[in-house]
Amino acid sequence: MEYKTRDEIVNEIRFKMEREMMKNIYDSHCALIKSRPQSQMYISSRENYFNKDSIKDVIFNAPATIVLWGDGTKTVVKCQDRDTYSEELGFAMCIVKKCCQNKGNYNDVFNKWLPKDAE
Fold first, then answer.
1. Residue 40 predicted with pLDDT over 70
2. CA dist 28 → 33, 34, 45, 65 (Å)
3. What is the pLDDT of residues 65-107, one digit of tens each?
4. C-alpha distances in angstroms, 17 versus 29, 65, 119?
5. Closest-CA residue to 90 (of 101, 82, 79, 102)
6. Is 93 left (phi over 0), alpha (psi -120 to 50) or beta?
7. Do the Cβ atoms of 12 and 4 come closer than 8 Å?
8. Helix/strand/coil (H, E, C) string of 87-100?
9. How far apart are CA 11 and CA 28, in angstroms?
10. Would you call 112 helix, strand, or coil by DSSP?
11. 3-state class percentages of the chain: helix first, strand second, coil last, to nearest 5
12. pLDDT grade for 51, boundaries at 50, 70 and 90
């Protein structure tokens, strides 16, 4: 029968305690994330980073503005019939849309916080 030294036993216990502690931290973190409403989820700063050098080309073709990105994707925004086309605004909205993963969900933020037009 092989016996363990005191140091081996202490190291084994320490390793088990550290592993259990890390598992508890991970489980707590997962539970916290799952308990948050989707509206409170945050994009990490790395995902939300905008690199100005990632723009490959910009096409201004009223009423649309198109940005071609270095990763092979493109972003298209169009002004509505009642709006006046602006190259600067179209370009800015393409950047905002790209930072929102090229989904239309960026409109939800604007619709929530901007005042409604009097119709």
1. no
2. 9, 10, 22, 44
3. 999 998 898 999 998 888 899 999 899 888 888 877 777 777 7
4. 18, 57, 65
5. 79
6. alpha
7. yes
8. HHHHHHHHHHHHHC
9. 25
10. helix
11. 50, 15, 35
12. confident
Structure tokens at 91: 């370009």
Q: How far is residue 95's CA from residue 51's CA, in Å, rounded to a whole number?
A: 10
Q: 37: buried, middle or exposed (CB in 10 Å: 19+, 13-18, 0-12)? A: exposed
The residue to which tokens 């009423």 are assigned? 63
Distances (CA, A) of 89 to 10, 21, 74, 112: 64, 50, 17, 19
Q: Read off the pLDDT band of 57 (50, 70, 90).
A: very high
Q: How far is CA 112 from CA 76, 93, 94, 109, 116, in A?
A: 22, 16, 19, 5, 9
Main-chain phi, psi angles of 58, to 5 degrees = -130, 130
